[in-house]
Design a protein that fits this description.
Layout: E1 3-11, H1 13-21, H2 26-36, E2 40-46, E3 54-60, H3 63-75, E4 79-87, H4 90-103, H5 110-114
Antiparallel strand pairs: 1-3, 1-4, 2-3
């Protein structure tokens, strides 16, 4: 089963110059690249944000595929920053907390050991 991820980033000045010189729908150029990595695109959005102006939601087999994707895109110079994080559906997140609930009594914090708790 593929996992869901959120990619966010800030486009570079070089990207802006290229888009002004030749406006283009970047999704149509990016999609074949994603398919070569077996990554499925759900959303491909540009925003008006200052720190982040791009967000994409994708599905992939593993974290390594996202790391490959981001490294190649960053190397292109089109983005000054690009990062990804795993996204969880509500049911998946509930299961994570159910496991945590079951295991939390086994955890001993550093402050308890140091006697500062």
């Amino acid at each position: 089963m593929k996992k869901k991820y959120i990619i966010s980033g800030k486009s570079s000045q070089d990207f802006t110059s290229a888009m002004l010189n030749k406006p283009q729908n970047r999704r149509q150029f990016v999609e074949p690249f994603l398919k070569s990595l077996n990554i499925e695109m759900h959303e491909f959005l540009f925003t008006t944000g200052q720190a982040t102006n791009f967000i994409s939601i994708v599905s992939a087999e593993n974290d390594e595929k996202l790391e490959v994707l981001c490294n190649i895109v960053l190397a292109s110079g089109n983005f000054s920053s690009l990062s990804w994080s795993r996204a969880f559906e509500a049911e998946e997140f509930q299961k994570i907390f159910e496991i945590g609930h079951e295991k939390m009594e086994k955890y001993v914090s550093a402050t308890v050991i140091a006697g500062t708790d």
